[in-house]
Design goal:
The protein has 157 residues and is mainly alpha-helical. It contains six helices and two strands, in the order ββαααααα. β1 and β2 (26-31) form a beta hairpin.
């Protein structure tokens, strides 16, 4: 027996382990639980082979995803709309209407036409056409005479 009145009892390994503690007015006995868990073996599951994509496949997937993303200019525009809504400069229905209107208006544009206002190749072609027909500055003599006749006939009657 110990000096404080408690006693520990140990039993052989086959018997359950217990500990008894005797205090004034109380005696406590602690026993380790005797739990028998079943042994379960896990089934062997073979994992399917997943092929690793090649660099070309990853590049094609990235390009496909990039086609669905807005251009950087559009992303800044719509981000600015979102920021104005977040800072309560405009109401969200107004921003929604502006964004939808802009998206629908730009729907027919291709990236090349939205970036440049007018193609430069069309201007020289129009100038060449006007030069071949007299430059557009002077009319042919038959056109001048028919205009003068129409003015005289209309003015005299």
């Amino acid at each position: 027996m110990a000096a404080n009145g408690s006693r520990t009892t140990t039993t052989p390994a086959a018997a359950p382990r217990t500990a008894t503690m005797r205090l004034p007015f109380v005696t406590a006995e602690f026993r380790a639980p005797d739990v028998h868990l079943p042994r379960v073996s896990m089934p062997q599951v073979s994992l399917p082979h997943v092929p690793v994509p090649s660099r070309d496949e990853l590049t094609a997937a990235a390009r496909t995803a990039q086609d669905y993303l807005p251009s950087p200019r559009q992303a800044v525009y719509f981000g600015g709309l979102a920021a104005m809504v977040a800072f309560e400069l405009i109401e969200w229905p107004v921003a929604l209407a502006i964004g939808l209107g802009t998206a629908l208006a730009g729907r027919g544009e291709t990236p090349a036409t939205s970036a440049t206002p007018a193609p430069a190749a069309a201007k020289p072609a129009a100038a060449a056409t006007s030069r071949s027909s007299g430059g557009g500055r002077s009319r042919s003599s038959s056109a001048k005479s028919s205009t003068k006749k129409a003015a005289r006939d209309g003015g005299s009657s």
